[in-house]
User: Which sequence fits this backbone?
C-alpha cells in the first residue's frame, strides 16, 4: 500500500512539475512577446519622429522654394519692365531721328527745286 501511495505521490509531483514547466514556458513566451511588442512600439515611435522631422524639413524647403520663386518672378518682371522701357526709348529716338532725316531730305529737295527754278 505504501509503495502505491508513494508512486501516486511521485506521479502527482511529476504532473505538478510538468504543469509548472508548461506554465513557466507560457510565461516566458508571453514575456518575450511583451518585449517584442515594446521593441516594435519603440521602433514605430522612432520612425514616426523621424518621418515628422523629414516632413517638417520638406515643408520648410517647399516654403523656401516658394519664396525664391516669387523673388525670381519679381526680379524677372522688373527686368522685363526695364527692357521694355529701354526699347520704348530706343524706338522713340529712332522715330525722332527718322523725322529729322525726313525734314532734312524735304528741305534739301525744296532747295534743289528752288535752285532749279532760278
Assistant:
Amino acid at each position: 500500500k505504501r509503495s502505491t501511495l508513494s508512486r501516486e505521490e511521485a506521479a502527482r509531483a511529476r504532473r505538478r512539475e510538468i504543469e509548472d514547466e508548461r506554465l513557466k514556458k507560457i510565461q516566458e513566451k508571453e514575456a518575450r512577446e511583451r518585449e517584442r511588442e515594446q521593441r516594435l512600439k519603440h521602433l514605430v515611435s522612432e520612425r514616426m519622429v523621424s518621418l515628422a522631422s523629414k516632413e517638417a524639413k520638406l515643408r520648410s524647403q517647399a516654403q523656401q522654394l516658394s519664396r525664391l520663386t516669387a523673388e525670381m518672378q519679381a526680379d524677372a518682371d522688373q527686368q522685363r519692365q526695364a527692357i521694355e522701357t529701354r526699347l520704348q526709348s530706343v524706338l522713340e529716338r529712332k522715330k525722332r531721328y527718322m523725322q529729322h532725316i525726313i525734314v532734312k531730305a524735304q528741305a534739301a529737295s525744296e532747295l534743289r527745286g528752288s535752285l532749279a527754278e532760278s
Observations:
- The chain has a mean pLDDT of 94.
- The helical segments are 2-117.
- The two ends are 172 Å apart (CA to CA).
- The CA atoms of residues 24 and 51 lie 40 Å apart.
